[in-house]
């Protein structure tokens, strides 16, 4: 077979082999939240729904902050895969798995102060707080499985395998939905039923992911005896990548928390309208993240192989698909945005307020697309420090100044600040990536290719 007959590993087909399953798996996530709300929302007291919302918020905060376990694992694994290092792909699985177990153990050990501090910050009513404690006490035991699932999904993506993450997410969500209905509606377990369903679903997802991981490892030479997981010096790169990803995530969470807090000060109607419009942004993020995941895997593979031309092809093609999908979202929001608002809320005041700020969400896809795609690119080349610097810089240099300069505009200022923040992230990463490519720094040093 000649070189021209070898399939292009960065082709459009390769992109969608990863992006398609990841987008499909993302579609099921909002459905799970709807089922949780529906089964608890039909119980006799409103505080059950409030308790699940409070408990879910606590775990969302905890696990979103630890999502670097997924992102960092993808980039390191993809580079080891591209370099053809069998020991490297095992090390890129074993190291973050041990880190996940350590972090999960800390969450379990510190569960009492975590729930106490969280309830003090969220300040729910006494009935909601009591039920939230019940929810937390059960679901906290899902932490090891949840964090290991982050690692397995990230590792499988780095191995260019999107079927595994799809199977894991579908397993978690389908088991969760079935057990929600059985435990809450059938057995009458209320809040405890929702928490137990989530715990068992995460364990089922871990079992499913383990099958795919086992298959991948069996197809590669080598074994665990040559992987030095006990050597602290081998964790330096993992720590460097993940610490920067953690700081980057904290800055992003700050922005969303700031928008919620300032929106609340502008009144319940504005707060509700912003929550409705954030669904537009989240829907966009779910879709574009699918292509960003493909960028992580393919760019990381090219970086590990030190294939500069392949890396540029992977970036150019995933960027074209991202812009095309973002354009489709912009047109959809332009044509059907008001109808979507009406589907999400039946309160006239909230509908009218959301329509006032809808133009910000119509332009958001073509502004946000660059930051979503480049997040994937930077994960692939494991340049997490640059990701963190751009994120923190956009927060401090654009988001906060825009809000305080134009605060008199009220909620318009919030959306202006958010739009500038997203634009700054995209532009910052675009120009920094060009500098990295020009200086040859986008490709990892030879000593980083194979641990």
Oligomer: single chain
Q: Measured on Cα atoms, how large is the radius of gyration?
A: 22 Å
SS-derived structural category:
mainly alpha
Q: What is the average per-residue confidence, as pLDDT, rounded to a whole number?
A: 87
Distance between the termini: 31 Å
**Low-confidence runs:** none
The global form is: globular
Descriptive notes:
By secondary structure, the chain is an all-alpha fold. The chain has two domains: about 10-230, no CATH class; about 240-450, no CATH class. It has 16 helices and no strands. The longest helix has about 35 residues, at about 270-305. The radius of gyration is 22 Å and the shape is globular. It starts with 11 loop residues before the first helix and ends with a helix. The mean pLDDT is about 85.
List the helices and strands and how they pair.
Blueprint: H1 12-41, H2 46-65, H3 68-83, H4 86-109, H5 111-122, H6 126-139, H7 143-158, H8 163-186, H9 190-218, H10 236-265, H11 268-304, H12 308-344, H13 348-380, H14 384-405, H15 411-439, H16 446-449
Helix pairs in contact: 1-2, 1-8, 1-11, 2-6, 2-9, 3-4, 3-7, 3-10, 3-11, 4-7, 6-9, 7-9, 8-9, 10-11, 10-14, 11-12, 11-13, 12-13, 13-15, 14-15
